[in-house]
Specification:
The protein is α/β, with parallel strands linked by helices and 280 residues long. It is built from ten helices and 13 strands. It has a six-stranded mixed β-sheet, sandwiched between helices. A four-stranded parallel β-sheet has the order 2-1-6-7, sandwiched between helices. It is globular and about 55 Å long.
Length: 280
């Protein structure tokens, strides 16, 4: 039987290396809109150009989730389908995936479809996708994969560091005063995806070193013992290297990989931002 692993573009994984046999990976893009400009978050997106355009515009940036029809089309041609979306608290992508998968099942009633609201984004979804592929490789049944990936999602978390919040200010999520203070005072915001799927602020610290130390401290406090770590960054290569080094100093055998950040995640993280998914 053919499998499909389907994600929206809050997932940074562009292709699955060593993908399971008879399995196809499909990424359904969100779009980002400002003024008359529409950016489709697919493989052809020039993220750097998009970010610069956003910074040069004073207008609010909006995002649009994939349509139910886009999810239905993505599902076609497979018997077993797992869909993973960005947290439902930030986007309607999960609801679209539910509607689209139901539309497909009306035509192909024997299709098995499981839709996961990640209650997260970026690195945490990247880990979930890796694990789905690993489970399919084990020749498990659809129900077994569904059960095991549900268990796995309870053992992953997301942390982030923000050093620019221009887009959050323009979209009314932060005041101009706070946004200006963050830039002038070298303040870094550290947060996490909560169990409910909201983006929760944990700390405000000054300087990169303090921010990275807090990140590793949060990882350890939440139960991290050296499992997989998947980090994406928005033009913050040196910060990524410092964070990787710090994690490996504490956990030498940890698997710490950098995955290029998608357009949607770059919009949320902004320049200098880090998003980190890890196993606990």
């Amino acid at each position: 039987m053919k499998w499909k692993i389907i994600v929206d573009s809050s997932c940074n994984v562009r292709e699955i290396k060593d993908i399971a046999e008879n399995t196809e990976y499909v990424r359904v893009p969100l779009t980002l809109n400002v003024e008359e400009k529409v950016y489709i978050d697919d493989y052809n997106l020039n993220v750097e150009e998009m970010i610069e355009y956003f910074y040069n515009s004073s207008s609010k940036v909006t995002s649009a989730c994939p349509s139910p029809e886009a999810y239905k089309k993505a599902c076609e041609g497979a018997e077993n389908i797992i869909i993973v979306t960005i947290t439902g608290s930030l986007s309607g992508s999960y609801n679209s995936a539910i509607i689209g998968s139901n539309m497909l099942k009306e035509e192909y009633s024997n299709t098995n479809i499981h839709v996961i609201d990640s209650k997260s984004a970026s690195g945490e979804i990247d880990l979930i996708v890796e694990e789905i592929n690993n489970l399919i490789k084990q020749n498990l049944s659809f129900e077994e994969v569904k059960q095991k990936i549900t268990e796995y999602t309870n053992k992953t978390k997301l942390l982030f560091i923000l050093e620019k919040v221009d887009n959050l200010v323009k979209n009314g999520r932060l005041s101009k005063f706070i946004g200006g203070a963050i830039g002038l005072l070298n303040i870094k915001l550290i947060g996490q995806a909560s169990d409910e799927g909201t983006l929760e602020l944990l700390h405000k610290v000054r300087g990169t070193k303090k921010a990275l130390s807090k990140i590793v401290e949060e990882m350890i406090n939440s139960g991290y013992k050296g499992g997989k770590v998947r980090i994406s960054h928005c033009y913050a290569e040196e910060t990524f290297k410092e964070l990787k080094e710090l994690i490996l100093k504490n956990f030498p055998s940890a698997s710490v990989l950098n995955i290029k950040m998608s357009g949607l995640c770059s919009f949320y993280a902004e320049k200098g931002g880090i998003m980190l998914g890890y196993e606990i």
